[in-house]
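I am still getting used to backbone structure tokens and would like to learn alongside you. Would you supply a protein for us yourself, any chain you care to pick? Start from the sequence, derive the backbone structure tokens from it, and show both lines together. Go ahead whenever you are ready, and we will take it from there.
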Amino acid sequence: MEYYTWILAFHVMSFMSWMAMLFYQPRLYVYHQEHAGNEGFVEVVKIQESKLYHFIGVPAMWATIISGGAMIWLNPALFQSGLWLWIKLVAAALLVAYHYSLGWYKARLAEGTCTKSGKFFRAYNEVPTILMIVIVIMVVVKPV
């Protein structure tokens, strides 16, 4: 257990990095869709979308999952500490699904086949905020 707090610190840093990607990636999609007529701009945005997703988002997501799993493995009693952990895990699973949906949209945008508007991506950008609020409340407050 002497490494537990180090793993926890790494988990929090990984989660913060992952959330940064989840917050910004849909914003790039807004710019992509709202400036579709400006080919030079869109080409730059495509590069940003790809690098953010693959070089920040994917490693941060896996670091978050692995460090979270390690904490549960080191302290399985967490499952007896209340419903909060289960709610957090469900919210985290939804974040993973959201992450992969961003990859799907990225591929459609790159192909030029995405039919979603900038307005859609503005609304879609709120999903990780809601899930992050649930996760933080469950971890810090542990209301259930």
Summary: The CA atoms of residues 59 and 89 lie 19 Å apart.
